[in-house]
Structure formats: structure tokens, C-alpha cells
Design a protein that fits this description.
Elements (H helix, E strand, L loop, with lengths): L1 H12 L3 H5 L3 H57 L13 H25 L2 E5 L13 E7 L11 E7 L5 E10 L4 E9 L2 E8 L2 E2 L1 E11 L3 E10 L2 E7 L11 E3 L4 E5 L9 H4 L2 E2 L3 E13 L2 H5 L17 H11 L1 E2 L10
């Protein structure tokens, strides 16, 4: 029984080394090949399920697929563990020392082109900032899929913007489409009962609903006001705080035939078309699918000095490397209620 438990644990944590531990060379090599192709297969399933079933359906298919794969690995490992171990020289030194690294080097060399191709169509994306609050939170982990035609780039859609800074790295930002080719976007700050808010006009029509304003407190003592925005059936919430949004490159933007206007839902803390100008259609590559996980590292508690300084050593620069990761890990909080959700 001990042998089965160790093999299952190894396969769950370091697949397919459970089969290597059981000394089953054929199954080990077969599952190594499967693990090479599996990520691309899962992405293909997600892509098709999102096309046919939408975001909620794709999320359900994803979690069912993951559950089925883990269940299969556990069951197969238990079955294989009941077989006699092989006496193949594959497991004798020095063969065992050379086979494993060579196998994984081969897998990496062969798998990179396949996975790189599949990631163009479905890929994981993380939110490293608060620029999309309240819709998306810092630490959200989600899947996005390739945009196949211009019809998918509709107003209100959450999309990935591949931005290349001058003399800098390429960055992938998730923003919301506000204006599409041919639109005229006007930015105008107005005074309301809840303070100053940026009112956005698209083709002369305001997309802000002032009547929906209500105050909230996020991240300990930080007051914000939420407003509903959008046109037609597409409605979403934006967040306005007390900070000055800064100077825009212009207040009126007339979009060309290949240009889009993108903004973050957190209007006080988002680098977007207000500061960088309209975005070329070529740089809008993926659309949002669903959340698969969400982590709150609670860095803001360190910034506001609301928790023990021993839990903020990485934030204060007093810890680095593995020590910083260990400290940060102690602050980790999983947002269970955001796993598997689909937002607009």
C-alpha cells in the first residue's frame, strides 16, 4: 500500500515519475509522451468549448477535464502499482541517471513548438495590477482565447492588448474596449454628489449612468465610488477614487478604420488609451474567457502598515530570494468565490 501511495503522490506532483518509481519503463515513456501533448489538447478543448458554450460552459469543461485527468492518473497508477516491477537495465545505474534528464530535454525541445503554437489560441493570463478593478482583481488568474475576427472586438469586451514600450519589453494588458473604428470618444470630467468622475462620450452619447453611484471601501480604509457604465445591454461597473487621473494625451479621439480605444475599469489607476492613444487592431489579440484561480497577496496591508511588519519583509526590501517568497506565501489568501466565475 505504501508503494501505491508514493507512486500516486509522485504522479500528482511530478508526472510521470510515479511510473518511474514503480519501474514500469513502457508506461513511463508513454505517459511522458502524453504529458508532452496534453497541454495543447486541453487548450484545444477550451477553445472549442468557448466557441460552442461561451465562458460559463468553457469554465465547466475546464474543471471537469482537470478532475477527470487527475482521477485517471490516480486510478491508472494504482492499477500499475499492482504489477511486478521491471528488471530492465533502464533502471540500473548509470542508465537511470542519464535517461531522466535526457528525456525531459527531448520533451522540452519537442514540446516547445507545439505548446507555443497552442498558446497563440488559448493561454493563461494573470492580473498583476489593480487597473481593472472592480471587474477583475489584482491576483486573478484567467484564460483568454485568440480573437479570430473583428466582430469579436465589440464595445465593452475584455481583451488582451499587446503593448510594446519604446526600448522596453512587450507587455500584455487586459483592458476593456470603449471605442471601435469610426467612433469619436470624448473624455470629460464632471462633478457629481459623490465627487469628480470621468464621463466618457462615444459618438456624442454618454455611457456613464450617474444614478448608479454608490460608495464602497476596498483594501482597508480606501474609499471608492462605483458607477455603472456601458450602452445597450452591455453594462459593467467602473471604479473612481480620490486620486487625480493625470493629464491625457487628448480629450477627443477620432478613431481611424483600424483603431480601438481601450480603458481600464479602475479609472484612477490604469495606463490605457487616455495616455497612450488609440490601439491598432493588430495589437488586440485575445478575449477573456473565465477565471480559473484567484490569489490575494495582500500587499496593500503592508503599504498601509495594517499587519505585523514580520509579514512584510519582502515588501520593505528586508528579504529577498527564497526568504521573500516564504514571507509573501504567509500573506497568501485564496479567493475561493472567484474560482470558475465569468465576468462581463
Amino acid at each position: 500500500m505504501k508503494r501505491k501511495i508514493i507512486a500516486v503522490a509522485l504522479n500528482l506532483l511530478l508526472f510521470p515519475f510515479g511510473y518511474y518509481y514503480l519501474k514500469q519503463p513502457r508506461r513511463f515513456l508513454l505517459m511522458a509522451l502524453v504529458s508532452l501533448l496534453l497541454p495543447s489538447l486541453v487548450r484545444a478543448i477550451l477553445f472549442l468549448s468557448h466557441l460552442l458554450l461561451g465562458g460559463t460552459g468553457a469554465a465547466a469543461v475546464f474543471f471537469l477535464t482537470v478532475f477527470a485527468l487527475y482521477a485517471f492518473v490516480m486510478l491508472d497508477t494504482m492499477i500499475v502499482a499492482g504489477r511486478p516491477a521491471s528488471d530492465n537495465r533502464f533502471f540500473r545505474l548509470p542508465h537511470a541517471l542519464w535517461v531522466v534528464p535526457l528525456l525531459y530535454i527531448t520533451m522540452a525541445a519537442g514540446g516547445y513548438p507545439i505548446q507555443s503554437f497552442s498558446e497563440k489560441y488559448v493561454s493563461a493570463h494573470n492580473l498583476p495590477t489593480s487597473s481593472m478593478e472592480p471587474t477583475l482583481l489584482e491576483g486573478d488568474l484567467l484564460y483568454v482565447r485568440r480573437i479570430m475576427n473583428e466582430d469579436q472586438k465589440a464595445r465593452g469586451k475584455l481583451v488582451v492588448w499587446q503593448h510594446v514600450e519604446e526600448n522596453g519589453p512587450e507587455r500584455k494588458w487586459l483592458k476593456r474596449i470603449i471605442g471601435i473604428p469610426g467612433d469619436t470618444v470624448l473624455l470629460k470630467e464632471i462633478n457629481t454628489e459623490n465627487g469628480t468622475v470621468l464621463n466618457v462620450f462615444v459618438n456624442g452619447q454618454s455611457i456613464l449612468d450617474e444614478k448608479t453611484a454608490h460608495a464602497v471601501v476596498r483594501r482597508v480604509d480606501e474609499p471608492f465610488t462605483l458607477y455603472q457604465e456601458g450602452s445597450g445591454e452591455k453594462k459593467y461597473w467602473i471604479q473612481e477614487g480620490a486620486e487625480d487621473a493625470g493629464q491625457f494625451v487628448a480629450n477627443t479621439f477620432v478613431l481611424g478604420p483600424d483603431q480601438y480605444f481601450l480603458m481600464g475599469d479602475n479609472r484612477d489607476d490604469s495606463k490605457d488609451s487616455r495616455y497612450l492613444g488609440p490601439v491598432s487592431a493588430d495589437w488586440i489579440t485575445h478575449e477573456y474567457m473565465f477565471h480559473y484561480f484567484s490569489i490575494d497577496w495582500q500587499d496593500y496591508l503592508c503599504f498601509q502598515r495594517k499587519i505585523d511588519s514580520a509579514l512584510c519583509q519582502d515588501f520593505q526590501g528586508q528579504a529577498s530570494g527564497a526568504g521573500a517568497l516564504l514571507v509573501k506565501w504567509k500573506r497568501l489568501k485564496i479567493r475561493w468565490d472567484r474560482i470558475g466565475i465569468v465576468v462581463d
